[in-house]
Fold this sequence. Notes:
Number of helices of chain B: 11
Helix content of chain A: 25-40%
Mean pLDDT of chain A: 95
Radius of gyration of chain A: 22 Å
Oligomer: heterodimer
Bound molecules: iron/sulfur cluster
Number of domains of chain B: 2
Low-confidence stretches of chain A: none
Structural class of chain B: alpha/beta
Low-confidence stretches of chain B: none
CATH topology of the largest domain in chain B: Rossmann fold
Mean pLDDT of chain B: 92
CATH architecture of the largest domain in chain B: 3-Layer(aba) Sandwich
Shape of chain B: globular
Structural class of chain A: alpha+beta
Largest interface: A-B, 36 and 37 residues
Shape of chain A: flat
Distance between the termini of chain B: 60 Å
CATH superfamily of the largest domain in chain B: NADH:ubiquinone oxidoreductase-like, 20kDa subunit
Number of strands of chain A: 12
Largest sheet of chain B: 5 strands, parallel
Strand order of the largest sheet of chain B: 2-1-3-4-5
Number of domains of chain A: 1
Helix content of chain B: 25-40%
Order of helices and strands of chain B: EHHEEHEHHEHHHHHH
Largest sheet of chain A: 8 strands, mixed
Number of helices of chain A: 12
Amino acid sequence: MSLYMFPKEKLAAFVEALLPNYRVVGPVQTEYGYAFDDIASPEQLQLDYTTTVLPPKKYFLPQREVLFNFSNEADDQGQPHLDVRPVYADVEPTVIFGVHTCDMNGIMLYDKVFAEGYKDEHYAARREQTYVIGIECLRPCDSAAFCKDMGTLTAPPVYDLHMTDVGDYYMVDAGTGRGEQLLLDHVPATMARKEDIQQLGHVLSAKWPNFRMRLKMSKDQTPSLLTLGYRAKLWEELGEKCLACGSCTNVCPTCFCFDVQDELDITMENGARARIWDSCQLREFALVAGGHNFRETKASRVRHRVMRKGKYIKQVHGLLGCTGCGRCERACLVDITIPGTLNALSDEMQLEPGD
Amino acid sequence: MPAKPKVAFFDFTSCEGCQLTIVDLLQTHLGLVNLVEIVQFREAMTEKGEDYAIAFIEGSCTRKSDEDRLRKIREQAAVVVALGACAHLGGVNAMKNRWAIENVQTYVYGEDGKAMYESYEARPISAVIQVDAAIPGCPIDRFEFLHLVQKMLQGRAPKLPDYPLCVECKLKENACLNKLGKPCLGPITRAGCNAICPTYGDGCEGCRGWIPEANFDEMREILRGHGLSDADIDARFTMFNHYQMQHMGDDAPVTTTVSPVKDEPLPTSTFAAPQEEPVR
Ligand code: SF4
Ligand code: SF4
Ligand code: SF4
Ligand code: SF4
Ligand code: SF4
């Protein structure tokens, strides 16, 4: 698609112009950091931000989402029947600003999970109505990040618009036709000229040395490392420490497991079916009827998560399940981290460092 | 709909905050009276029906003489539900179990008064009678109460979350207090209150009781990291859950003893007159 540019001071006007017709969300300052939240006026939007507690996945798979309402009704013959009405709450035209490249990689995985093969209607409804505007990461947003290791430091093709700060201007890549239209309708953008594109190339290549590597192996080695390390002692050690709190999965941009619950209103005639985020780190996750739990120990649960991130998701969906965003490291109170785990596993297995 | 089950509310040693929560719930969810028939509820009505199928019991048992009343309720009710932390865990009342009961009685009622007030070690009602379900919390969460009633009416076993509070806290995208240097017992405490304390900036005190796989060792490490002494940490672990710790015996994850200590000085009462010396 085409490359555009607009002066940075026009960002406020861009947001202002969108506000009447779109729900605009993006990183905003909170008491202790940043979070993706609704933008009511342009100055709230902070495009230079450290990692948020939750990734923007909450706009595609809300923490709790009502799927349908149901009620007990009588049909024409007076026979009771259950009336089911799908609910699409808060599904509205939305623009998300400031999505980091790692989080766009998370969205790419979500698209594979929820939109390819079996298409999840609720996911699709939200995704279709949502414009993703990325922001190029030029320096690490958080010391816990290891996006460079995971190859998520470039924008994957899920964005409608992708912005790069090149000094006085934002260079904007239009990833979709509707994104291009959104841009041209709301901000006086001009086509990038040859020298601007050169400047962009300069900025994009200059950023790489700013990011450090944290893994002792290449990301391509993680599936085989995890295969070899399935029975490693490490898992027992981590299981001892783990609090089974589920924070690591709840904050993860690639975790997508949910539980489904029916809730009745006070009449007990009507109710709603909702889905709520769930976590493989919780004891009940793999508990089945009859009381059998196929991941009873915390060690087996910690291992399962890392297996998902570094191997299983890749096997099923073709992408690694970790974007290197560092959120789980920030959330964990007992210092269980993806780089720490993979590196320790590599040590235990005595692997040669990858290139 | 089948006949409405008859329910009754009872209170033992408690602040009545949990019953008050139900009175309040009746204001917003009046439809509850279409689901059940309340035949006895001292805090809300004068009538005292003795024909009930479901008994909600608030408060812990702190007197030997209360045991009979509890047994009588158990005999009548098909289902007994512990209402709130006092009934469910022993709650804050069980903090007194740290001292020998005679010392506590003297401390509270004075040398002259202690003979007039009966007291023994505070305990959850499950220590006296069989309890079928519990609604945790100090006070209870009104919606959890409602869900439990609905589940029972459907003939389904009510189920409490057995995962820690951190789950609800993260879903609300709170900044983690333990990361900010403020002690929070969320990682070992049963979820279900929607992480209300951390959401308003206060660390969880564990009023809903511990999860089945509470990792006390790591929790202690986290709290030590905030500069808390082991005695402070023990105090936090036993604020609502003293009885549980006491009954874990040597397995209790505390550094000090949780069994009654005869000579340990009692704290100065907040209500004591300035010249009053703490009773020993
Ligand atoms: S596993 Fe951790 S670092 Fe990797 S994507 Fe999930 S939260 Fe980010
Ligand atoms: S955040 Fe840490 S302690 Fe909590 S479940 Fe994950 S690994 Fe375990
Ligand atoms: S659990 Fe708390 S609110 Fe309920 S009666 Fe006991 S002290 Fe009062
Ligand atoms: S504030 Fe408390 S409940 Fe919330 S995540 Fe941190 S430890 Fe868990
Ligand atoms: S946050 Fe903790 S102390 Fe507060 S109500 Fe919930 S369980 Fe009780």
